[in-house]
Amino acid sequence: QDYTWEDHGYSLINRLYPDVGQLLDEKFQVVYNLTYHTMAMHCGVDTSMLRRAIWNYVHCVFGIRYDDYDYGEVNQLLERSLKIYIKTVACYPEKTTKRVYTQFWRHFKHSEKVHINLLLLEARMQAALLYALRAVTRYMT
Predict the structure, then answer these.
(1) Nearest to 101 by CA among 112, 51, 53
(2) For residue 42, what are the β-bridge partners?
(3) Please, what is the Cα angle at 72 between 69 and 75, to 5 degrees?
């Protein structure tokens, strides 16, 4: 059974700490929806599928999978070097080096790479919250 932020985590955290759920949700949404509609030298690009793939891949790394998402998109959209970078930043941030940072998306702007880092960090935070809130839910029932 899925335990999602939208269906479970948001309402529980709002019950425990009023208004915190709204603040966290806004923070997640701002980072998730942030786009300049560019990728490297291409303008007018819809990056929503890529952002969703990155977010879901981070959750997948932490053992959270969604039945309604096609994980084949992850393999189509995320090249190996980006997957390595995502795992390194999400699981072993102390091992993130400048070399690891420069190895993925060599032709992309630093602002695009920073956006990837924001996506990774917020998705990781949401994954951690989901685990904690699920434990609280189990304790309360």
Answers:
(1) 112
(2) 39
(3) 125
